[in-house]
Amino acid sequence: MQCLGKSFTLFVIFLLGDLSFTHGGHVLVLPGEYSHWSNMRNIVDELLNRNHRVTVLVNSASPTINFTQQERFQYLVFDVPLKAHEVHGLSEQLLDIWLQYPAPSKVQIGLQIIDLLGKVREMHRTMCDCMLRNETLISRLTALKFDVLLYDPMNMCSDLLAEILDLPVVLSLRISLGFSMERMCGQMPSPPSYVPVPPTEMTDHMSFMERVKNMIVYVVYSFAFRMASMTLDNYYSEVLDITIFMPA
Questions:
Q1: What is 184-205 written as a DSSP string?
Q2: CB 195 within 8 A of CB 204
Q3: Mean pLDDT of the chain
Q4: CB under 8 Å to 28, separation ≥6 — which residues?
Q5: pLDDT in the model for residue 106
Q6: What was the pLDDT predicted at 11?
Q7: Helices (DSSP H) in 17-83: which residue ranges?
Q8: Which residue stretches of the chain have pLDDT < 50?
Q9: Rounded to whole angstroms, how far apart are CA atoms 122 and 141?
Q10: Domains, the chain, ranges and CATH?
Q11: How far apart are CA 40 and CA 150, in angstroms?
């Protein structure tokens, strides 16, 4: 009976004690930049608080993420032939265009954004090549045996990395121009008569002419997004084919 009493006491202590014997999953994070990273950082901190392991995969030209700083999680850095100030410069150009609104014509702003997005797309393609075609990096990521990929879809080829590593995905999206990703990829309800498209200054209370303008802006952003997606089709097919037939 004395032995039984001791066992019961130990059992109660085990139940009531704040003991962390469980282990969470291993999460690979592919973050965005600026406010996108700030938004995702909250998720990362909560994952760590819940005893998950987190590895943040970041390129060497990130203008936002200080990967030399000591953190509770691990950074894994891959090299790209770019500098942080070059990446930041494109973001500054986009911000300058936004700050012009509504001074120039909406058509002029739309053309400027489409031209700039083409440059951003080429920059992201370079980063994708450095990540996806880096056999050493892919082998290391595979060996780390992640359970899930948390990524910002503003990074062009994050889903390709998930395909290569055969990982389930969780998305964290701050915002996209014209709600393009939210509407076309996430099926977000966004009736143009009631939901103003960013980065316009209209509210959900629009006059008839404002609704017409809002519809036109929706069409422009939707067209630009479709065109950008079409130009990426060949790249995605090329990378997946190389990955599929890559010798073990």
A1: HTS-----TTTSPPTT----SS
A2: yes
A3: 81
A4: 55, 57, 141, 144, 146, 148, 149, 150, 165, 167
A5: 63
A6: 47
A7: 35-49
A8: 8, 10-15, 18-20, 243-248
A9: 25
A10: 22-244 (3.40.50)
A11: 9
- Which SS3 state, helix, strand or coil, does residue 29 take? strand
- Token pair listed for 70: 């000591």
The whole-number pLDDT of residue 246 equals 38
Q: Two tokens at 167? A: 């990982």
CA–CA gap between residue 80 and residue 96 (Å, rounded): 26
- Of 137, 235, 144, 219, the C-alpha closest to 178 is 219
Of the candidates 179, 222, 173, 220, the one whose C-alpha atom is nearest the C-alpha of residue 197 is 179
pLDDT of residue 81: 95
Q: Which of 47, 14, 12, 11 is nearest to 29 (CA)?
A: 47
State the Cα torsion 51-55-61-63 to the nearest 10°.
-10
What is the model's pLDDT at position 2?
A: 53
**Both tokens of residue 189?**
């309800």
- Spatial CB neighbours of 201, under 8 Å, sequence gap ≥ 6: 101, 102
Is residue 226 a contact partner of residue 114, using CB atoms and an 8 Å limit?
no
Look at residue 226 in the predicted model and tell me its pLDDT: 77
Range list of H helices, 69-179: 84-100, 106-132, 135-143, 158-165
The CA distance from 102 to 21, in Å, is: 57
SS3 55: strand
Tally of residues, the chain: 248
Give the whole-angstrom CA distance, residue 239 versus residue 126.
13
Euclidean distance between CA atoms 87 and 157, whole angstroms: 17
Q: What is the pLDDT of residue 14?
A: 46
pLDDT of residue 102: 58
Percent of the chain with pLDDT over 90: 35
pLDDT for the residue 120: 80
